[in-house]
Amino acid sequence: MIKKPAACSLVAGITLTLTLALSPSATAADAADAVSTSVSSSTSAPSTQSTIDALLSESGYSADLKAKIRAAAALLPSDWESRLATQSKRFGLADTTWYAQAQSAINAGDYQCGRTPVQDWLSAQMNGVNGFRMLLLSAMGGDQIPTYDALVFGRESKANYFGADGSYTTELNREMTGLKRFWDFDGSDVQLIPMHGDAYRDLDRITRVYVEVFGLDARSARANAEVVQAIVLNEPALRGGDSPYFTFNAFAFSPEPADIEQYGLTKRIIIGDGVLEGMRGIGLQDKAAPLGVLAHEYGHQVQFATNLFESPLTGPEATRRTELMADAFGTYYLVHARGSALNSQRTLDVEASFYNVGDCNFYMDSHHGTPNQRLKSAQFAVSIVDGAQDQGHKLSALEFDAAFETAFPEIVAPDNE
Questions:
Q1: Which domain holds residue 103?
Q2: CB-CB contact of 180 with 130 (8 Å)
């Protein structure tokens, strides 16, 4: 997903509409219908307050908690929804979560594109979650706390750990060092930063997102932080914020001058615990799949550095090109003798990870390529390595891109051709 050359999400293709098994009584679709009905009598767009009131009426919360949430919501500015959208667009995050796949646009005769195991796994993680409460959290901007906590306030540090239990820390840090050595640009200012759900257990961290990112005053920020924390901690299935839903993302970011001036941001790659848990959850026990995630995101940093986002393509086709290219860049590093030099089985795990985050959002700017296209892009990179006469020779980024551009029409060709 790219609204501007700032952030690229590996997992933007994963749809989480919460329409599957959220709770016996309330899915997000039910909640959305209820809200629509509740505010349909208004001739203008519903306000944040009216939306929150409609959701609260179906939430099942106690009268005291409802009153506290209403009081906090009343402190939100009149342009609240606009603020959320503006910041999401500013950081290139607009299409990473909460959007529906354009299933009606799929031509099943042209592309084999159904649900993947990781989509089913992620839906299963939301069993028992009340859809009204999740939409309430989203309306207050609370579902994005870990993302902004990592992106805006995270810094590279020896104390950082990757994965909820830290089990991916050594491998990902080692690979980051290898990636910086492998590609022919100065990546010394690219930071690798984890995203954890533990932000929900720290009121100060939630509050600073509301102040520094969303522009609320201290009183309003604290009040909303308290209710966001209450919503998350009182929903057992959200695991105190450790639900993979909140951190099911990985993306590369290259700051604009305003981002540097306001926040001191550097180029960075954010890896969420949810992604790492998801790869393990679908049976990719080897560390190769998470390494593939990082190598893909570093591929975007290669694109930033070499101006490879520029092309005559627009909309979904433009995003698909850069995402599939990043798959190829990542795989090339992982299988190359001077990169990670993965063996055949570990390479298959990488290919499976890319396949599982393909999507069918053909008419959305966030379209990253179908599962089969993402697999073919990775396989293309393997063929470049296997076909090299000198296995020690390494293509430059631009040389590799030239080969990719030649192969691209075949990579995206319909499956029945």
A1: 7-411
A2: no
